[in-house]
Amino acid sequence: MRPREGNICFYCMRKLSKENWALDHLVPQSAGGNDSYRNVVAVCHSCNSSKNAASAGDFLRRLYRSGRLNDTEFEQRLLAVDALKQGQLKPEV
Questions:
Q1: The predicted structure's pLDDT at residue 53
Q2: Where are the domains of the chain?
Q3: Nearest-angstrom CA–CA distance, 10 and 71
């Protein structure tokens, strides 16, 4: 396993393992999100189950407010969401 995210959770930046990873939609399918590489990221089980139907930005704000992300990490994650939406973070094929 070597996801585009470099074996770290896209949201909380914790290390991913074979037993602790899932795929998540930045824009939930229930809100019209698709399965494009621009919308799917590797995440830990904790973030996957906690995010539910929240948007990526809202979920990152929740992680930041709870202290799971510091200022720099929060800003980096928001920039990564924007880069994904623009198609700049392509997965290795």
A1: 86
A2: 22-85
A3: 16
Q: Are 89 and 80 in contact (CB under 8 A)?
A: yes
The span from the CA of 3 to the CA of 88, in Å, is 15
CA 69 – CA 61 distance, rounded (Å): 9
- What is the rounded CA–CA span in Å between residue 33 and residue 70? 28
Whole-angstrom CA distances from 56 to 13, 42, 74, 78 are 14, 13, 12, 8
pTM above 0.70, yes or no: yes
As averages over each run of 10 residues, the pLDDT of the chain (93 residues) reads: 75 93 90 88 94 92 97 96 86 67
